[in-house]
Amino acid sequence: MTALALTLSISNRTMLSVAGLSMAEQFSWSAKEFGALQSAYLMGYPLTQMVGGALGDKIGAKVLFTVIVLLWSVATFAMPPAAMHGGLAAACVCRFLFGMATGPSLPIAH
Is the distance from CB of 50 to CB of 100 less than 8 angstroms? Predict the structure, then answer.
């Protein structure tokens, strides 16, 4: 189960590199704006690594994995409508939250 969750996390991280080119074209985002969207993930990810590892020790990895998979799934599914209705800033917020949700995945896997 852990391997599946980590595979899902890694594939979700990289999917923006593929789908993002179409998104950037659709929403007329420049390369700089698209870079900001990709960077939003990296701003959220390290914020929850240590906290997530400690929380995983306290409440259990299975429980925390379930919670973070749900959170990163919501953030992933929310990004296209957020981009359509709220623009680049809303998409960046979703990507930032996705990074925060995936931060604990590696620490609690060990």
Answer: no
Q: How far apart (Å, rounded) are the C-alpha atoms in residues 62 and 27?
A: 38
CA–CA distance from 19 to each of 11, 16, 24, 66 (Å)? 12, 5, 9, 26
Q: So what's the pLDDT on residue 14?
A: 84
pTM of structure = 0.90
Name the pLDDT band for 1 (thresholds 50, 70, 90): confident
Distance CA 45, CA 78 (A): 18
- Token look-up 């890694």 returns 10
DSSP 104: T
Run of H or E including 46:
none
CA atoms in the 13 A half-sphere facing the CB of 67? 14
Helix axes 31-44, 61-102, angle to 10 degrees: 150
